[in-house]
Amino acid sequence: MKSFFVNNGLVKIHVLENGVYSSKTPSLLVISGLWEPAERAIPILSGISSHVVALSLRGRGLSSTPETGYSLEDHLSDIQAVINHCKLQNYCVLGFSRGASYALGWSLKNQQNMCGLIIGDQPPIHTKLSSENVKFWCSLEYLGVPILNFMRRKAIEGLGKEAEEIDFSSKISQLKIPVTLFVGRGKEVKISSDILDETLQLYKEEIPSCEVIEFSKSGHMIPDEEPEKYIEKIISFINKIECNNV
């Protein structure tokens, strides 16, 4: 597994990469949740034999933390820099949680260069962080570890100042690439799924070809609650596209 940095102007983006590009098998770009660094994708990087790239968006993990630049477009520029550096083509994008809102924003503009999208338990909305949200994330612990161990306070506050709400609901019908939605449907979970029944219905209506994969033992945190099934379904998605391309 390779670890390196990509320059996006003055911002350094940390990247983990495993496997090599194949003309027959899609590469996979992983965009994790709000606070999650590239290292959170190591189970995917090590569990999938094909080419996988994961990045830490600005302010997360080992990536640098600029004073400003936390809008959707700023984050999409991080993704652009990594795709350019890694020369990704014939690739799929997996976005989990808030990472899926970045993935949707990216895919709606760049699907002509993609061959698939996995949306991980996220409504088609890029949300704005209120001052209460900022306080919540800054004080949150996950599995006993402070979120601030993975994402700098300055970056969370930057989202609060600069991120604007963008609703993709009216645009997702424009997606013509294969789309799969991972949905947590567990009842006795600590963190509930972010996909309400009406949101699930919206995805089905706007993207009739969208495949919905339900995780019955998970809430929102599918990668941690059903890790084996999570990897299995990602591999299945990639293999289906591989078969279609051969």
DSSP helix count?
8
Spatial order of the strands forming the largest sheet? 1-2-4-3-5-6-11-12
**Terminal residue distance:** 27 Å
Which structural category fits the helices and strands?
alpha/beta
Total number of beta strands = 12
Approximate strand percentage: 15-25%
Mean of all residue-level pLDDT scores: 95
General form? globular
**Quaternary structure classification:** single chain
Helical fraction? 25-40%
Q: Strand-and-helix sequence, N→C?
A: EEEHEHEHEEHEEHEEHEHH
| Rg (CA only) | 17 Å
Main sheet?
8 strands, mixed
Low-confidence stretches: none
Task: Provide key terms for this protein.
single chain; alpha/beta; 8-stranded mixed sheet; two-stranded antiparallel sheet; 35% helix
Please summarize what this structure is.
By secondary structure, this protein is of the alpha/beta class.
